């Protein structure tokens, strides 16, 4: 009984600690312009990319057709992430964070009429 | 009681806290290249249950919270549409017609259970996310995190579990698989273990009277399980599970697209095994029987995408349980000179066929639903032999018609037929009977605007044993403003009490069964009222639910274990029997990605036994439930913790059996607490989970009375009110491969 609760506690602490530490370690951000055309693609790609090595946060948006990946720099590279996107059949055109912010903001301005 | 006071306070204060932005628009349907306003379209924010419906002119208004991003439009007969909403400009939305017959559409969300704001019947929807929270393995275990459904052991030896809704036994709830009645008659005792968890896509639990379309049963409510569909995204799914007590399970299913997107088939396999003998309380009796179950299911679906659809399937099941004293062996004869043994063998075949057509105008639809089953049971409980065979057929045709273009008025009418044949033998009695019940029904729905729905139905059934009877039912739903939905329902229900097949677990007792009627009809009225509220509190949705249900029996089978020293008496009710159930739920995310559920229910269930109005025995007077579900960012880890507080209750005992001195607590069991916890780690194609059931290892003391002399007069394994099995640690693996 006791062992189980201890095990449980360790797992719980482990998961939180994992997340907290991840924030500090050398994180990198990669932004891409892509070619998704439906909400389904968005979820397929999200489900796929989140299990790429070192990925800690992810924003996939089909309306603006952008992807933002936050990852551990020592575990993955921009190039490999782009390959992963292409493997799923979508374009992965590398853009800067500034450009990404610009596209997302613009998309938000005109975005509401977008349909699938 | 103080917690209730607190809840009521919250309910009163909340309307003043909330506040957000309003989004407006018009929704149109496209028909023959013309667009016309579409009333009654369900419009909701993806991932939430904040929804509205469009009015007669297709207008809608919906509140936009901070987290609301994607707006979903769904309507039977039209393709679902999802829109990204970034600003509050007025919207014009056009829906394209969709010729596929509208089935119960299951929306996949991260939130495991939600209460619909649109359905006129108070319904809890449990989807695959919720099903992941419990270990595995079958329908009974899927309710561990559910506040409405109680699951308990029927007895201490067969391993059978029963559910309770509104404090009433599972037989008073209509159990359905894919919207067709199932798991009844001989399948009553073990039926919940015949539905493997990993085969299920979702479960719907509705309380109170159900729609007349589903029959005259459903006195306390209705539980429907949907299996995975062959045209779903899943290509292959595998699940293995091992429990520290020696339980092993395997589940697998695969979908094959046979011809384009039109014809598909799904194959399902389930195997479970318990071959280790566990006797933790050392009373000489196994805590759970040795058991083995094998089940295969094949289903087919045809859809021409032009309005016609057909589905069919067949299931084979074989199951064997061997319980009783741990020294009993399969090779032993049931004799008083041998250890006490129990053996139950079940073999079952079932099939279903359903088909439907939707006319191109989308206003008219025709559907046919049917299933059949053949079930054979061979069993002995000590020296009592019980053998039975059952054949059952159910068929129902429903014709749906919207009476005007706006679908303000619509009508569902049709006919049904039930055939049920039993052949049972117990002691020296052979009981044969056949039920044949043709019936007709009609249901009218009035939906003048998105805030109000009124539904009333009536059916007439012509029973070969009980004559003609009428079943009236009524439901309404009203949205009072944006935050509050109220619902009411009233209806009559009937069911056939299968005196032996539904109660054969009572044979695990020294007292033989005594019954006056082999079969008779139970009748009851049910009334219910529910109040659901949705608010935005600190940017997150808060959902509050309060409900009250009352069931009044006119006729009922009463199990009387306390007026006779020599028999357990099964007799029709002579007096009163009723149930009152009050429940409060609160669902909120106090911290990002941490879902919290607090629930509390009071049960007041009483019936006349031996001329005295008494509390129903072995029923907890209350139940509290707390569930926490936490997922890490991107849902790579999931943590679940559930604690159930079960109230005390009455134990039915014949005074003589305690001897001269009646010990304290003889007629009463105390409240008890059960905890479950689970951790799941997700990977791209598979996930792994570890957990524990009954963490605190709480067990009922001496679940088998007279265990030292099982052929003696004190023996009784049926007075069970709490867990029989102790702490169970388990681990499992799931593997999923999807079609792209």
Automatic annotation (TrEMBL), chain A:
This is Cation transporter. PROSITE patterns: HMA_2. It comes from Mariniphaga sediminis. Keywords: Signal. Residues 27-93 form the HMA domain. Residues 1-22 form the signal peptide. The keyword Aminoacyl-tRNA synthetase does not apply. One of its GO terms (molecular function) is metal ion binding. Pfam families: HMA. It comes from the Bacteria.
UniProtKB/TrEMBL annotation, chain B:
GO terms for cellular component: cell outer membrane. Its main location: membrane. One of its GO terms (biological process) is siderophore transmembrane transport. Residues 122-221 form the TonB-dependent receptor plug domain. GO terms for molecular function: siderophore uptake transmembrane transporter activity. It is a multi-pass membrane protein. It is found in: Cell outer membrane. It holds the Pfam family Plug. Keywords: Cell outer membrane, Membrane, Receptor, Signal, Transmembrane, Transmembrane beta strand, Transport. This is TonB-dependent receptor. The keyword Cell cycle does not apply. Signal peptide: none annotated. It comes from the Bacteria.
């Amino acid at each position: 009984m006791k062992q189980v609760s201890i095990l449980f506690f360790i797992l719980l602490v482990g998961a939180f600690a994992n997340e907290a530490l991840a924030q500090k370690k050398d994180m990198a951000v990669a932004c891409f312009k892509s070619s998704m055309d439906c909400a389904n693609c968005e979820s397929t790609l999200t489900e796929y990319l989140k299990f790429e090595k070192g990925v800690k946060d992810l924003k996939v948006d089909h309306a603006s057709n952008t992807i933002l990946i936050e990852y551990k720099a020592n575990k993955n590279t921009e190039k490999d992430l782009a390959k992963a996107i292409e493997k799923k059949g979508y374009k992965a055109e590398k853009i800067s964070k500034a450009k990404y912010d610009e596209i997302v903001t613009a998309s938000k301005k005109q975005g509401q009429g977008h349909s699938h | 009681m103080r917690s209730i006071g607190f809840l009521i306070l919250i309910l009163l204060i909340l309307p003043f806290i909330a506040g957000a932005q309003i989004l407006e628009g018009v929704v149109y349907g496209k028909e023959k290249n013309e667009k016309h306003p579409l009333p009654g379209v369900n419009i909701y924010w993806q991932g939430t249950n904040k929804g509205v419906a469009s009015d007669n002119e297709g207008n809608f208004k919906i509140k936009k919270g901070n987290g609301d991003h994607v707006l979903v439009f769904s309507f039977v007969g039209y393709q679902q549409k999802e829109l990204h909403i970034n600003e509050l400009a007025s919207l014009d939305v056009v829906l394209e017609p969709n010729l596929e017959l509208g089935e119960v559409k299951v929306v996949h969300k991260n939130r495991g259970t939600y209460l619909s704001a649109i359905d006129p019947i108070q319904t809890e929807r449990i989807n695959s996310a919720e099903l992941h929270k419990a270990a595995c393995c079958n329908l009974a275990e899927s309710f561990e995190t559910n506040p409405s459904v109680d699951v308990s052991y029927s007895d201490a030896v067969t391993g059978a579990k029963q559910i309770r809704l509104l404090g009433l036994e599972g037989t008073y709830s209509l159990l359905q698989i894919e919207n067709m009645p199932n798991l009844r008659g001989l399948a009553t005792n073990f039926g919940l273990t015949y539905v493997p968890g990993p085969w299920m896509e979702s479960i719907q639990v509705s309380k109170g009277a159900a729609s007349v379309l589903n029959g005259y049963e459903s006195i306390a409510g209705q539980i429907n399980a949907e299996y995975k569909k062959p045209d779903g995204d899943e290509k292959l799914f595998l699940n293995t599970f091992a429990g520290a007590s020696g339980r092993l399970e395997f589940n697998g299913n695969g979908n094959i697209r046979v011809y384009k997107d039109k014809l598909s088939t799904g194959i399902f396999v389930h195997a479970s095994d318990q071959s280790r003998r566990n006797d933790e309380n050392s009373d000489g009796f196994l805590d759970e029987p040795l058991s083995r179950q094998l089940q295969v299911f094949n289903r087919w679906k045809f859809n021409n995408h032009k309005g016609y659809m057909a589905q069919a399937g067949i299931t084979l099941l074989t199951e064997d349980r061997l319980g009783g004293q741990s020294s009993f062996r399969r090779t032993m004869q049931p004799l008083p000179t041998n250890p006490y043994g129990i053996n139950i063998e079940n073999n079952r075949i079932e099939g279903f066929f359903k088909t439907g057509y939707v006319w191109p105008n989308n206003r008219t639809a025709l559907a046919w639903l049917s299933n059949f089953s053949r079930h054979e049971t061979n069993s002995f409980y000590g020296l009592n032999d019980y053998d039975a065979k059952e054949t059952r057929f159910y068929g129902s045709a429903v014709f749906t018609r919207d009476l005007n273009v706006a679908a303000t008025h619509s009508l569902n009418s049709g006919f049904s037929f039930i055939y049920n044949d039993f052949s049972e033998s117990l002691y020296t009695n052979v009981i044969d009977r056949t039920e044949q019940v043709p019936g007709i029904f009609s249901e009218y729905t009035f939906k003048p605007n998105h805030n109000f729905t009124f539904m009333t139905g009536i059916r007439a059934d012509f029973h070969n044993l009980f004559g003609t009877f009428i079943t009236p039912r009524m439901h309404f739903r009203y949205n009072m403003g944006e935050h509050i939905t109220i619902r009411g329902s009233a209806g009559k229900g009937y069911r056939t009490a299968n005196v032996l097949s539904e109660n054969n677990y009572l044979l695990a007792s020294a007292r033989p069964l005594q019954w006056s009627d082999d079969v008779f009809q139970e009748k009851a009225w049910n009334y219910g009222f529910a109040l659901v509220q949705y608010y935005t509190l600190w940017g997150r949705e808060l959902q509050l639910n309060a409900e009250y249900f009352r069931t009044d029996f006119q006729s009922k089978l009463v199990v009387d274990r306390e007026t006779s020293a020599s028999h357990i008496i099964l007799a029709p009710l002579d007096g009163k029997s009723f149930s009152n159930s009050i429940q409060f739920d609160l669902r909120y995310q106090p911290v990002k990605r941490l879902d919290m559920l607090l629930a509390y229910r009071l049960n007041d269930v009483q019936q006349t036994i031996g001329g005295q109005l008494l509390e129903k025995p072995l029923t907890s007077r209350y139940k509290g439930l707390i569930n926490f579900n936490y997922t890490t960012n991107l849902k790579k880890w999931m943590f679940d913790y559930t604690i159930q507080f079960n109230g005390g209750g009455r134990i039915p005992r014949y005074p003589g059996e305690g001897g001269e001195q009646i010990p304290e607590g003889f007629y009463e069991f105390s409240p008890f607490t059960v905890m479950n916890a689970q951790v799941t780690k997700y990977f791209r194609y598979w996930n792994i989970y570890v957990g524990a059931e009954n963490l605190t290892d709480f067990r009922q003391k001496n679940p088998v009375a007279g265990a030292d002399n099982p052929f003696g007069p004190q023996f009784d394994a049926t007075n069970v009110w709490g867990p029989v099995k102790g702490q169970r640690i388990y681990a499992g693996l799931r593997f999923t491969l999807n079609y792209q």
